[in-house]
Design goal:
Oligomer: single chain
Radius of gyration: 28 Å
Structural class: alpha+beta
Number of helices: 8
Shape: elongated
Number of strands: 6
Order of helices and strands: EEHHHHEHHEHEEH
CATH class of the largest domain: Alpha Beta
CATH architecture of the largest domain: Roll
Helix content: 40-55%
Low-confidence stretches: 1-31
Length: 271
């Protein structure tokens, strides 16, 4: 059982980047056109330059003679194997044609989204607005919380009565809680702001003071909870500059999600 709210962000990963393994080859001289020829078939320099650029921009790999040497060897290996596959007629199979259709479609998607992101960059004002919204949602405090999760309200009320008579919260959590993620820790959920929990649980936590326990069971979609706040402290959030990159990615994905939704809304889709 997970009390933390799941956040789902549409992520469309760029494909088509050729993975290059590390290479210990010595430095080579400047490559000439074509990059290489395999059984009379030239590997054009434009293809090589494209892969170099992808490794530098998408993978963050610095340009170096070793990296270029490794890419060259990878392209040669690909051409050798591709020729062998074509010789067997695999390029004529229906599976291969389907794969090519899918690859073409995905590459078009990636090209379109890259073009869109370039033309519609996330602004600093958008990121600051999102940062302020998140700060407001998170609140100013975080709490060290324990809980015991059971299936029925009656069970939860019995546990509350036992604790009020002197039973140890952690011991009962280990014995009775249905939450596998915290029962072995005596129900400990560690430090978290209320916003990290589903709303009924969050409201209960925010309404308790240090050392207090809920007097009545709290119901959530997971079951019935007995909640105890062991401690509280001021919530320390990272600065805007520390999370600016993450905010940009988050908003960029939101823009892409809206773009796709708008395209679907304007498309004639028959099922």
């Amino acid at each position: 059982m997970q009390l933390l709210k799941p956040s789902q962000i549409l992520i469309i990963a760029a494909s088509g980047i050729i993975a290059v393994t590390s290479c210990h080859a010595q430095q080579t001289s400047v490559l000439t056109k074509p990059v290489a020829t395999v059984n009379g078939v030239a590997i054009p320099e434009a293809r090589f330059d494209f892969v170099v650029k992808q490794n530098m921009t998408q993978r963050g790999e610095p340009d170096s003679p070793e990296m270029r040497k490794s890419i060259r060897e990878t392209l040669i290996n690909q051409e050798v194997v591709a020729q062998a596959a074509a010789k067997k007629g695999l390029d004529k199979s229906s599976d291969f044609q389907t794969m090519m259709d899918l690859s073409r479609g995905q590459n078009l998607v990636n090209a379109y989204l890259r073009d869109y992101v370039t033309a519609h960059p996330v602004t600093d004002a958008e990121m600051k607005q999102e940062f302020d919204k998140i700060k407001g949602h998170m609140g100013t405090k975080e709490y060290k919380v324990r809980h015991i999760l059971v299936k029925t309200e009656a069970e939860a009320k019995k546990i509350i009565a036992q604790i009020n008579k002197g039973a140890k919260f952690a011991k009962l959590a280990a014995e009775k809680s249905e939450d596998p993620g915290s029962k072995d820790k005596g129900g400990d959920l560690d430090w978290a702001p209320p916003s990290n929990f589903v709303k009924p649980f969050a409201d209960a936590v925010a309404g308790l003071k240090k050392g207090e326990m809920t007097s009545e069971p709290v119901q959530t979609p997971f079951g019935w909870h007995v909640i105890q706040v062991e401690d509280e402290r001021a919530l320390k959030l990272p600065s805007y500059d520390q999370v600016k990159g993450q905010l940009e990615q988050r908003l960029q994905q939101e823009h892409i999600s809206k773009l796709i939704a708008d395209l679907r809304a304007g498309a004639k889709i028959e099922e």
